[in-house]
Write a structure and sequence with these properties.
This protein is of the alpha/beta class. It folds into 2 domains: 160 residues, Rossmann fold (3-Layer(aba) Sandwich), CATH 3.40.50.300; 120 residues, Zinc Finger, Delta Prime, domain 3. 57% of the residues lie in helices and 8% in strands. The chain has a 5-stranded parallel sheet with strand order 2-3-4-1-5, sandwiched between helices. Helix 11 packs across helix 15 and helix 12 packs across helix 13. The longest helix is centred in the last third of the chain and has 25 residues. The N and C termini lie far apart (60 Å). The chain binds zinc ion. Zinc ion (ZN) binds next to helix 3.
Amino acid sequence: MKPLPWQKEVWATIAGSIREQRLSHALLLAGPDGAGKRHFAGCITAALWCRNLASDGSACGECADCLQVASGAHSGYFLVRAEEGKRDISIDQVRALSEKLTMTQYDGRAKVAIIEPADALNVNGVNALLKTIEEPTPGSHLLLVSARPQALAATLRSRCQRVRLAAPGRAIALDWLRNTSGGKHDDATLAAALDHAFGAPLKALQLLDGAGLAQRSDWSRGLVDLAGGRGEPATFAAAINEADPVGWLQWLYGWMSRLLRMRIAASADDDAAIVSLAQRLPAELLDRYIAEVQAMLAKVHGPADKKLLIESLLIGWLALLARAGRAAQNRPS
Ligand SMILES: [Zn+2]
């Protein structure tokens, strides 16, 4: 299991710690969705067990231990995620994990627990986990994965060694996508997928594999259409709700953040219609809207009516445009 091309530098540090047997008991792997955090966690896990490490300290990918890690069946490997349909990782899940970590392994080798996303731990879960971190079982490692490390309790964050896993620059990302997708897509399609994934290569790959890319192109066009006085929020909301409401909200957050960036620094790759839209919008109004989207992201997992949530955000988008229009009229020329 090789780290991704843009993770080589950070890998060298981690590989050094593994070689010297001083890898921290608790690591916080932080970085945007689709930048390869989970892959990196897999690389660490495999390297802790592999008996045939490569010269860069990465796992061979072929020995019995590596194959077991790859299939998720290794006896010293535990993955903790929120249960189906739930938002939080429960205290019971954390307790069960702590128990498994404290039982001794058959041959005293490493045990690894991946908690993903770590920001799904609730207060009780965090407290239970803190005990495990403060009295670690020798050879046990917790890998906390999070795209929102700021949402983690400070008490937990401060006890973890933070490993930053950023998305690569555009050229490296496109190169990787080209190689990984096996020539199935032309460069324009790869670039569009990367745009809709906000620069995160693994997310882009996922969009290319399914209907995600076409969906996001529709969403983008829908927002531009609404801005141009075309289309109805209710109709658009129904279509989004049918397709992928949570995916839309996450995408909308990224899309609006990108508008904010475009106001200041549009690049040649950016869509001209979207750039001109961005330049019409005052930063403080966009900021406020982005905060609204964030608040909705927290609600969308609950019992709230998703279609209504989406519709209210679309109406908010129209209100933002109207306010921006009035602000422009009042500006002295
Ligand atoms: Zn191996």
